[in-house]
Amino acid sequence: MAVSQNGWPVDPARRSRTVPGTNVRVVVADGPAGDVLVWVLAQFDRRVEDLDAGADDWGYANRPIRGSTITSNHASATAVDANATRHPLGKRGTFTAGQVAEIHRILSEVDNVVRWGGDYTGRRDEMHFEINASYARVAAVAARLNGGTPAPPAPGSGGHATVKRGSAGADVALVQRYLGLKADGIFGADTEAAVKRYQSAQHLTADGIVGPATWARIAAGLGGSVPGTGGGGPAPAQPGTTLKRGSQGPAVTALQRRLNAWYPAYSHLTADGVYGVGTESVVKEFQRRAGLTADGIAGPRTLAALKL
Ligand SMILES: [Zn+2]
């Protein structure tokens, strides 16, 4: 069986998939490799750089590595290129240091089963991300991503996933921000220790796992200002609410906290409940990235996209 550079089979079952949060489509292998690559692209779009609507995000292509006879990982549909025209093959420094750090953070969240072409020691390929691990390792990561993100949240959790050591994502960042930790969205040993301390102080079972009971307590601690968490009073943003420049109150605080927790790469708002210029500009940035009308007004569609 022909394999590409990373040992994955050439011309596998594959399909065109939309990167969540974008209109961009890429052809990737069915199964865990495609799941992980699409997740990485979605995080890239959200946290590093908008994926261009233009046709320069590429997945499957049966071809050798340019300038080589080795079969490219694009041939096994286990590689993707992001914003290729902005990050041409061979060119260095097409991302800022902050963006590079964020790329590495994303890849660490998938246990580095994806390698970035910007980390090649030879010719750099900064547009390029590829699977660089065995099927078993990639499948384990995909199972965690699929289990931690779209899986239905536990009853009583108010829409938040149960998170614990090894979890990653927005709900982890929310817990971290609440506990005063660095909100990197990765549930490691420090987060676990802080959760246990919090649980002890709250007379909850100190197991380090943030399930429905702990979520409910976090919501209560925030005076119910984490909407949808349950147990902490009514969600501040009622259906049909529109928040905009000049709005004030707990619904604005909830919006600010949500933006900070979910989008730490660009949202650093003071959660003061006052919808000023800063909040407006972060809302615009969110809308732009989410494909909504970027008017800076948090109406029903924007609030729904933020699960508020
Ligand atoms: Zn490539």
Automatic annotation (TrEMBL):
- SUPFAM superfamilies per record: Hedgehog/DD-peptidase, PGBD-like
Sorted alphabetically, which InterPro entries does this protein's record hold?
A: LD-transpeptidase_YkuD-like, Peptidase_M15C, Peptidoglycan-bd-like, PGBD-like_sf, PGBDSf, Zn_M74/Hedgehog-like
Region named Disordered = 228-247
- A GO molecular-function annotation: peptidase activity
Where the record annotates domain Peptidoglycan binding-like, the positions are: 178-217, 248-306
Identify the residues that the record assigns to the Peptidase M15C domain, covering every copy: 67-131
Pfam families, alphabetized: Peptidase_M15_4 (PF13539), PG_binding_1 (PF01471)
Please provide the record's keywords in A-Z order.
Hydrolase
Q: Which domain of life is it from?
A: Bacteria
What is the protein named? Peptidoglycan hydrolase-like protein with peptidoglycan-binding domain
Q: From which source organism is this entry?
A: Amycolatopsis sulphurea
